[in-house]
């Protein structure tokens, strides 16, 4: 099997149910999910399995789910059975709740960074936000699986929570943005 097909040499690419320009918003959205998947793989590679078996397992699951997002976003067929659903969103919310409970309370904005793995998870967060913005634009223009948008919204928050836990477990303090006001008044730990 050859890796190249030459079918995209004229600026078009195949989607499920047809063809689109390579710079079409749908292609941009699922292409960004693919880019994000590569960053997630790099973040997982930076994590020690002994200290972070939970996060490594979750990142592997997220990589599969990002393929699901790409599949759903690449379909223009009217009778598509979508892969991304509410259960995936609920899982991310549950993990975020656990990580928020584990990490110290947060009052101010923090700078992306700390350990290499946490910094990479922050990169994942920002690429997820770009995928989310592109998906929001696509939702305004065409029909699509709305659960993909919700998933991406939660996923960026998951990466934030996971990055904080990685730093915390490695005893590296998050660096607060020095000109930040107190923006988080109540944490789950204070309730």
UniProtKB/TrEMBL annotation:
Domain Cobalamin adenosyltransferase-like: start-end pairs: 3-166
GO molecular function, one term: corrinoid adenosyltransferase activity
GO terms of biological process kind: cobalamin biosynthetic process
EC top class named in words: transferase
The entry's keywords: ATP-binding, Cobalamin biosynthesis, Nucleotide-binding, Transferase
Quaternary structure and interacting proteins, as annotated: Homotrimer.
Family: Belongs to the Cob(I)alamin adenosyltransferase family.
Protein name: Corrinoid adenosyltransferase
Species annotation: Salibacterium salarium
